[in-house]
Amino acid sequence: FSEGVLQGKRVVITAGPTREAIDPVRYVSNHSSGKMGYALAIAARNAGASVELISGPVALPVPEGVKYTPVSSAVDMLEAAESSVDQQCDIFIAAAAVADYRPEQVPEQKIKKSQDKMVIELIKNPDIVASIAARKDKPFTVGFAAETQSVIAYAEGKLQKKNLDMIIANDVSDQRIGFNSEDNAVTVLWQGGRESFSLQSKSLLAGNIIDLITSRANYSKN
Ligand code: PMT
């Protein structure tokens, strides 16, 4: 692992799930544990980068030597990401499992049980990684694609549509990899190339991904 290769670079990483309030006591969320994003934050720090980790609610310890910004909803995460990238950002990695939709109306009081059936209307959340990648002076922007079918094709689509420099295709239909697992196996895609990583710990994989980003972004030491 190339120590010091990201010296002087600022890396911003989103991790974990977001929570979208239904009322003051309930929310919509997903099974992201934050393990992948936290492992990336540690690997980037070990490579010498100054790292900000913007995290949804998870049960992991905050990595040492990393700026930590806890958030809850997708809207909070967007705000934190925009202001962090405003400061300076060379590499932006979106490992968070951001809720695509949030309840449109959030009452101030707890919803009482009454009808047998209830409908909660959802509206689309802003796309954080797409918004960072749309900047004029965009950082090297890396996304994940968590898919349960046609994994590579959907990942390829997101690479183009979100204007990313790299996307990490994660088959989350396999229990051994993806949400809340210790290990992962992924295919990383970029314009005109790809590399697959076989089953390994998220921490080992994170180091390999940071190495790949470093060489694709031309930060490798000669
Ligand atoms: O946290 P773990 O338990 O370790 O699990 C890891 C993981 C499976 C969560 C991780 O490897 C992963 O795949 N993260 C992305 C999950 C996801 O939301 O994928 P997506 O295909 O829905 O989104 C595509 C990309 O857009 C992602 O980089 C996502 O962070 C980003 N996005 C999505 C929606 C949104 N509103 N804003 C975003 O920035």
TrEMBL record:
Part of the whole protein covered: 180 to 401 of 401
Organism (species): Alkalimarinus sediminis
Similarity section: In the C-terminal section; belongs to the PPC synthetase family.
Binding residues annotated for CTP, in chain numbering: 100, 110, 126-129, 144, 158, 162
A GO molecular-function descriptor: phosphopantothenate--cysteine ligase activity
Region annotation (Phosphopantothenate--cysteine ligase) ranges: 11-222
Cellular component terms per the entry's GO annotation: phosphopantothenoylcysteine decarboxylase complex
Catalyses which reaction(s): (R)-4'-phosphopantothenate + L-cysteine + CTP = N-[(R)-4-phosphopantothenoyl]-L-cysteine + CMP + diphosphate + H(+); N-[(R)-4-phosphopantothenoyl]-L-cysteine + H(+) = (R)-4'-phosphopantetheine + CO2
Pathway given in the UniProt record: Cofactor biosynthesis; coenzyme A biosynthesis; CoA from (R)-pantothenate: step 3/5; Cofactor biosynthesis; coenzyme A biosynthesis; CoA from (R)-pantothenate: step 2/5
Recorded superkingdom: Bacteria
Keywords noted in UniProt: Decarboxylase, Flavoprotein, FMN, Ligase, Lyase, Magnesium, Metal-binding, Multifunctional enzyme
GO BP annotations listed: coenzyme A biosynthetic process; pantothenate catabolic process
Coiled coil (residue ranges): none
Protein name: Coenzyme A biosynthesis bifunctional protein CoaBC
